[in-house]
Structure of UDP-glucuronate decarboxylase:
Amino acid sequence: MSGLSETLSLVYAVGVSKMNFEKTILVTGGAGFLGSHLCEYLLNKGNQVICLDNLFTGSKSNIQHLRENPNFRFLNHDIIEPLYLDDIMIDQIYNLACPASPVQYQINPVRTIKANTIGVINMLGIAKRHRARILQASTSEVYGDPLVHPQTEDYKGNVSTTGPRACYDEGKRVAETLFFDYNRQNKVDIRVIRIFNTYGPRMAKDDGRVVSNFINQALNNEDITMYGDGKQTRSFCYVEDLIEGIYRLMNKEDFTGPINIGNPNEITLLDLAERIIRLTNSKSKIVYKPLPKDDPKQRQPNILYAKQALGWEPLVDLETGLKKTIDYFESVSKK
Ligand code: UDP
């Protein structure tokens, strides 16, 4: 189906089913790891959800279970291309569209920058025309390889403009700038969340991120690929906690952010690998590989602001979340 006719059929479908929902919400990147959980959460709250995704890293299997729901629509579209949804009223937009794993966002770095500039301008344009509230999924990567620890929202970051991660880090930084400029210039109602490392079911097995790599290697008794000495740290947040934080931010009145959402439980990657080996009863051994350029040495969110402003804090501990994620990867490998 062509983009235009797909858009028209979407508009028609949305038009006829109106009435039985709270809000009409556009989720870009809705077939991705976080996006699919968010779509599900919003549908369960009685909203109509338009899930937009170009399926570069997202997957139809992530949203298969939602397609029976009459309040759910899928639109195969890239936010880099113009989008007109002018026959319906969009109330809220969650802009999650962008590959988020370093391996994936570096495949086509220029396209990653386009998603965060042209794509973001397109989505802000929809928000402006529809007078919709729009939330940007920003990232802890705006802090780069941080010199302040843990990271607070007022830290301005230590980011390379020229390195291999810059397409994402600088892209996400300019996306934040665009959000605040549309807010000042056009009175667009914005929310900006900075997402720290998140994991859980529906991560793509091959997306290259550490939790999915380690779990799949451990389940197959393959070598665990440790980049560097494994002493670098990350703080991992379970997906359910993250979705609750995003939702609370979107629905908080008179509040733009930016705000950190993540789990402050900081661990080394060696610790992560050992836990995963233990939880999977794996025979895997850790092997050491070169550390990718500009790989941040430490990362931990300060979430005081989220606690105070949103009454939010993560509830799922790492052990519980890892077990659920391991169960998920075991179940998909049997399919
Ligand atoms: N990493 C690793 N082995 C892997 C994948 C990643 O040691 O197979 C490391 C990576 O170098 C980084 C950390 O794990 O230090 C987290 O990487 P990820 O790609 O998940 O996200 P990042 O936090 O770097 O954006």
User: Anything to note?
Assistant: The CA atoms of residues 216 and 329 lie 7 Å apart. Residues 1-5 have pLDDT under 50 and may be disordered. The pocket of uridine-5'-diphosphate is lined by residues 101-102, 197, 208-210, 213, 225-227, 232, 234, 269, 292, 295 (CB under 6 Å). The longest helix spans residues 109-130.
